[in-house]
Amino acid sequence: MDNKHQVATFAGGCFWCMVKPFDEQPGIISVLSGYTGGTVENPTYQQVCSDTTGHYEAVQITYDPDIYPYEKLLELFWQQIDPTDPGGQFYDRGQSYQTAIFYHNEIQKELAENSKQSLEESGRFSKPIVTPILPAKTFYPAEEYHQHYYKKNRAHYQSYHVGSGRAGFIERHWGENDAK
Q: What terms describe the molecular function in GO for this protein (predicted)?
């Protein structure tokens, strides 16, 4: 990675649903599905879903901050999740599906904390915001069949996005947007 590009890492439940919203923005170089935050090296999907490795399903985004700054990434991240749910996201339950922002430097940490505080103060949600802000750990790419799932399996992705409750939640809390 060159000095112009930076990396952001977000856990927002099922990583299939976290790729498309970021992938379609200007200045996004790549969005990779994977696992982070755990204790097992090179975990498999089955290991992570067993909730025994400590990993989160996450996306790692390489971006050009001059085109799409970290603040905008944070804003889009919050619009993809239920930040008040400590037990997972929508249909998916368990530690591996919990939300988190993984910061890569002190600037990201400060910006993430400020955005979380702003969201809490906005009154948009009646329950407390529980998404933690954690230091980035090793990111392990998920198996190839998980990468850009929304492109490879359009119909299944769309039915999952709607059927899991994510699409309806986003619409209720954020209105019409491009997060579908």
A: L-methionine:thioredoxin-disulfide S-oxidoreductase activity; peptide-methionine (S)-S-oxide reductase activity
Total count of domains within the chain: 1
The torsion angles phi and psi of 39, rounded to 5 degrees, stand at -115, -10
| Residue entry with tokens 């491009």 | 178
Any idea which residues carry the catalytic annotation? Answer: 14
Q: Which domain holds residue 168?
A: 6-175
Predicted TM-score (pTM) of this structure: 0.94
150: left (phi over 0), alpha (psi -120 to 50) or beta: alpha
Q: For residue 142, which of 63, 17, 46 has the smallest C-alpha distance? A: 46
Q: Which of 91, 67, 79 is nearest to 165 (CA)?
A: 91
Give strand pairing partners of 34.
58, 141
Phi, psi of 81 (to 5 degrees): -130, 170
Asked if 13 contacts 97 with a C-beta cutoff of 8 angstroms, the reply is yes
Q: Give per-residue pLDDT as tens, 142-156.
A: 999 999 999 998 999
Structure confidence by residue, pLDDT tens digits, 149-176: 999 989 999 999 999 999 999 999 998 6
Does residue 180 lie in a domain region? no
